[in-house]
Amino acid sequence: MTYARQIDEQGIEGYLERYGGREMLRLLTCGSVDDGKSTLIGRLLYDSQLVFDDVLAQTKKATEKFGTTGEAVDFALLVDGLQAEREQGITIDVAYRYFATDARKLIIADTPGHVQYTRNMATGASNCDLAVILVDARHGVLEQTRRHSFICSLLGIQHFVVAINKMDLVDWSEDRFHEIRDAYSEFAARLQVRDIHFIPMSALKGENVVERGASMPWFQGSPLLDHLETVHVASDRNLVDLRLPVQRVVRPNLDFRGFAGTLASGVLRVGDPIAVVPSGKQSRVKSILTGDGEVDEAFASMAITVTLQDEIDASRGDVIVSPQNAPSLTNAVEAMVVWFAEEPLQVGKQYLVKHTSAQTPAVVTDVRYRINVGDLRREEAGKLEMNEVGRIRVECSRPLAADAYAKNRSMGSFILIDRLSNATVGAAMIVERKIADEAMQRRQSSADAGSNVRLQKRRLVSPEDRRQRLGQEPFVLWITGLPRSGKSSIAYALEKRLFERQKFVQVLDGEILRLGINRDLGFSGADRWENQRRAAEIARLNLGFGISTIVALVSPIEFERRQAREIVGDAGFFEVFCDAPVEACEARDEDGLYARARAGEIANVTGVDAPYERSAAPEIVLDTVASTIDQNVEKVIAFLRERKLLGE
Known about the structure:
Elongation Factor Tu (Ef-tu), domain 3, about 30% strand
């Protein structure tokens, strides 16, 4: 039944109400070049009477110029709309078609079959529930057929329809159908796909597309459209693990603050307890709003805005989760990646990782292996070329709240972005959140064991007593900036001035920490994060003992500085930014740090191949180029005096 007839019979309101209640199925067509993907979609739309008259007229006109089917309508031209696609007779970009039957709404992604455009195919498959994999009956299972099948499996698609097309060109041979089915089944046995359905068809002739064809009486299965209307995909959704990545903070007025995003998984109800990661702050759901108004309950894939009962800090990149079922935070992840770029993936090169709505610098530290798409065997590899698939290890500058891809497709996937061109160079699926070395494993185990420890209120000497005994109000100055921006010089000069004023103060810089309590840490993203966390914990303890602390670290990531502030406590924490351009810092570099980084001898050096994220509003900004050390120290002293922290 056409759209027009349905609207005439039901009325526009009745049609929209019935349309809105239908289940959605997202699918793609893929396979090798010229297997008939676009023709299949065109035939599906045409035989379902879902092609408008003007579109059909334009297609007939285009057939005269670009068609390959003689006088018959070339249904591929219903989908292939680019000039280059029509001239070459291939699909280049992903084309989406939307239509509905009485049973379902369908979104079909027509993806290219050419090896050069594998990245387009992977993009189209990333959000699909079902894959229609076409096989030319004359050629059988080709390498590109296997590559596309493996990528679909890797992307978590659990429902395959293997459409053995162009059966009219092999005389509708049942033996040929079984031969291809057996060959594909042998290959697919190594894929993690639970539902594979085989259909012989001729998209050009319309056999077994919408209606069962008379040319293959030996096939007793359903045609393609019937299968698409009845395949069960609802159980594929994760409705257990609540994950709401915050995409935007909605603040239209002083009385409303909402957190907007699309539910990646789980169910959320008004009154439910929630936590925000990575901060760990907790609250309860006050209201849930959608485009159709306020609701009491939301579930996976719904776009919602949530308001909370408490005023807590959450921003883009944070994730709202259940307090009893929160993902672990980790800087190091292992993932299967499909490499898109012509330039090979390079170990040690820094990329940007885009995970849900969060973005962070990251380094690929290892290529574990490459997958041979012909037989799905693992091969040793030091790099990945364009369209290759392999397993890599990635270390991020800030921790990711990530799940394994098999558990959660949204939270378990990320893309790699080239920092210079801003082009997407890889699509990755997290297969294991693995800590890199034994030292990190021990630290993680110790952190987990800490959940069994409870603070005992047995202190007989309070922090206030200690402050009175020492005669000072303690504070923490967190001095940050590029390497060689003057942090340590200012920290030690400031320590001397405060010591002369009879103040108890301690300096913590990179050398003191790494030659002592942090000697077990390296310079990976995870270890840098741990280095700063330990410094913040020491500063917090000093604060309780009544001792002031001056921390001098590069501390380039704003999230990590915010975490340090949360550990210490906002009341006694002050961020000091040493403002100096990288050129000035490099001119001061007597140790050759910048020179070695630019020569490629060392990696992940802030200011060269790693970014510095400047805070929006540090408490103190010091110009370390135009002002001397003494002048900057005086500026800090004046700030402390103004805050009445010097007892003057």
